[in-house]
User: Which sequence fits this backbone?
C-alpha cells in the first residue's frame, strides 16, 4: 500500500511524499479545514505488470478527484482544485515509481534465489 500526502493552503500547494510505501493514502487540508485522507490498496496488484500499474493509477486518480473536489465553480475554486490534483498526482507519481521499482527488485531477488534443479534444465 502507498501513501500520498499533500496540503492545500490558501494560495499554494505543498506536496510531501511519505518516506515509506504503505497504503496509498492521500491527504489534503484546504484552508480553514481539517486534513483528511484516502487510501488506495494495491496489495492485490502485480506492479511488475503494466495492466496492474494502470489499475493502480486509475485508483489513485479516483481518490485524487474525490479529495480535491471542493464544489466551487468560481475561478479561485477551480484553480485550487487543479493545484490540489497536480500536487497529489506529483506525490503519487513518485510513490508509484518507488512501488514499481520495489516490486521489480523483489521479482529479480525471487528469481535469483530460486535455484533450478537439474530436472528443470533439459539436457543437464
Assistant:
Amino acid at each position: 500500500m502507498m501513501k500520498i500526502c499533500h496540503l492545500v493552503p490558501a494560495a499554494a500547494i505543498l506536496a510531501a511524499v511519505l518516506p515509506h510505501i504503505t497504503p496509498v493514502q492521500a491527504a489534503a487540508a484546504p484552508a480553514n479545514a481539517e486534513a483528511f485522507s484516502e487510501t488506495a490498496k494495491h496489495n492485490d496488484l502485480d506492479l511488475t505488470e503494466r495492466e496492474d500499474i494502470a489499475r493502480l493509477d486509475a485508483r489513485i486518480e479516483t481518490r485524487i478527484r474525490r479529495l480535491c473536489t471542493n464544489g466551487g465553480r468560481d475561478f479561485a475554486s477551480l484553480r485550487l482544485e487543479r493545484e490540489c490534483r497536480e500536487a497529489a498526482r506529483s506525490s503519487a507519481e513518485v510513490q508509484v515509481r518507488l512501488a514499481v521499482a520495489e516490486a521489480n527488485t523483489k521479482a529479480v531477488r525471487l528469481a535469483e534465489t530460486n535455484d533450478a534443479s537439474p530436472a528443470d534444465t533439459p539436457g543437464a
Summary: The radius of gyration is 19 Å. The chain has a mean pLDDT of 74. Residues 13 and 86 are 9 Å apart (CA to CA).
